[in-house]
Target: DUF4371 domain-containing protein
Amino acid sequence: GVNVHALISKGKINEMKSARAALLRMISSLRYLMVQGLAIRGHVDENSNYRALLALVAEDNTDLASWLQRSKYKWLSHDVTNELGSIMAHEVLKHLVKLVKDRDAPYFSVLIDETADVTNHEQVSICFRFVDDDFEINEVFFGFYKTESTTAETLKNILRDVLTRFDIDIKFCRGIATDGAANMTGALSGLQAKIREIEPRVIQVHCLAHSLNLVVQEAMKVQSTVRDYLATAKDLITFVC
Model:
């Protein structure tokens, strides 16, 4: 006779395999959008880049096509999408940490800056700069960290928290690049001074790009044509965006 239990089990196994294959296609589609820096969602979910890309992939993938035809439990909610993105982000960070730590010479410098985003929240950006075993210079971005305060003590705590979280020893830090603000470069109470209290071999460097920006700003003050042009461009961008 027919083993009904075996048939049911086989059908369930095939269903699970199909669901896993669909999930892999969803993850790869989401990863593509994130790597390319494209928006995942829009004002209407049905017209989002993510949904459109999944529909395109489903044309050549029966597992995904079948999954998207389900009435519910499609794993397309904002929470699931955000969780998948967060998992991928953590995997990238783990890889970046290995790049910083797993070298013959584990020394590095830190590039740190703070600025307000479009919602007027202060964000601290942290990058690591190092030379790999092939003598190539690398800079890796570790993320933005929201803060309510931009005092030197707060910035020091944020940096130390990042180093502790990723098990990166500050004793291998040899440089810190910042802008010229007092909370960064203050000789007694600036961020660089507080870091040097922990690791005296750290050298503070004024960011060259920021220095150039200051020079350009001063130069524009005596060139009314350029000043007016940039002011008009700024107003136009504000109006359009």
Remarks:
- The chain has a mean pLDDT of 89.
